[in-house]
Fold this sequence. Notes:
The protein is α+β, with helices and mostly antiparallel strands and 135 residues long. The chain has one domain (12-125). Helices cover 45% and strands 12% of the residues. Strands 1-3-2 form a three-stranded antiparallel sheet. Helix 1 (15-35) runs antiparallel to helix 3 (60-81). The two termini are 25 Å apart. The relative contact order is 0.18. The model has no long low-confidence stretch (mean pLDDT 89).
Amino acid sequence: xxxxxxxxxxxxxxxxxxxxxxxxxxxxxxxxxxxxxxxxxxxxxxxxxxxxxxxxxxxxxxxxxxxxxxxxxxxxxxxxxxxxxxxxxxxxxxxxxxxxxxxxxxxxxxxxxxxxxxxxxxxxxxxxxxxxxxx
Length: 135
């Protein structure tokens, strides 16, 4: 299998904006992180890279609670704003470039773009593609 580059574009929001929308849920999430002895960057890696927390460990119950609180936060944001959020992570040193606009954890936001009436009608004749250019 070969390695290659892939262009990625992501819409992001900030912790501060999330706090404006659902302060109580965000604070509960941060508290659950502390109880699980994780920081937000570590937790984002479990989501972004499909890593599993050890639910069978002595901290397993704390991890389950953390996941529940995270889901509540994401659901509340969607309910309030009509767009979804999800933690993501990018390691620009090992997986990217010095020009990357995200590094470490970030909040990805979904539902930003709406297809035009014509795009919805003819969605079977196009697809999105990505590419990178060097130079």
